[in-house]
């Protein structure tokens, strides 16, 4: 074989495209909990979880009371959210019904919360069915109303949810301030604007 033919053979061998492996579209990995913590203050609990989303680490901190079949009152924030003292997390009440049963609170229904000092604020229910077919009902106070509600929660001992003129749920607020400050601290914020 002459030198030219050997060079052409080498050139052809190196410019041939390699065989492509078949592509599979694997789903992205599910978020995984990296770290979590739990604290209890009076009637309130705090849960903080750090989740690896595959792109970053996200810390979610929730202070709540109720549960175990009863409605819950909660405040949740994430380290990726805007937070105190310029933006305040939402305050939410959630009711979950047993399968094939309705919630007491109904979609579009007007209600109000009332504190033991008789301060109150109106809200409207959002009702829906979750992905497993359970009826859910919630209402929430978003910023800027949430700051007023959080301050009222700090200075009172009880919050009643009044639906159709009847008290639907009562939430005790002992331990709220400590749980709120702990949740804010765990997600990199302070209690400023609520506890000062």
What does this entry look like structurally?
The protein has 196 residues and is of the alpha+beta class. Strands 1-2-3-4-5-9-8 form a 7-stranded antiparallel sheet. The chain has a 4-stranded antiparallel sheet with strand order 7-6-10-11, covered by helices on one side. It has one domain: Invasion associated locus B (IalB) protein (Immunoglobulin-like). It is built from 3 helices and 11 strands; from the N terminus they run H-E-E-E-E-E-E-E-E-E-H-E-E-H.
Name its key features.
globular; seven-stranded antiparallel beta sheet; about 20% helix; four-stranded antiparallel beta sheet; about 200 residues; disordered N terminus; alpha+beta; single chain; Immunoglobulin-like; 3 helices
- Round the mean pLDDT to the nearest integer and report it: 87
**Class from helix and strand fractions:** alpha+beta
Number of domains: 1
CATH topology: Immunoglobulin-like
* CATH class placement: Mainly Beta
Q: Report the span from N to C terminus.
A: 90 Å
Largest beta sheet: strand ordering: 1-2-3-4-5-9-8
Biggest beta sheet summary? 7 strands, antiparallel
Sequence-ordered SSE layout with sheet pairings:
Blueprint: H1 3-15, E1 32-41, E2 44-52, E3 57-66, E4 72-78, E5 91-96, E6 110-115, E7 120-124, E8 126-129, E9 135-141, H2 145-155, E10 158-163, E11 166-172, H3 176-186
Antiparallel strand pairs: 1-2, 2-3, 3-4, 4-5, 5-9, 6-7, 6-10, 8-9, 10-11
Quick description:
The protein has 196 residues and is of the alpha+beta class. It has 3 helices and 11 strands.
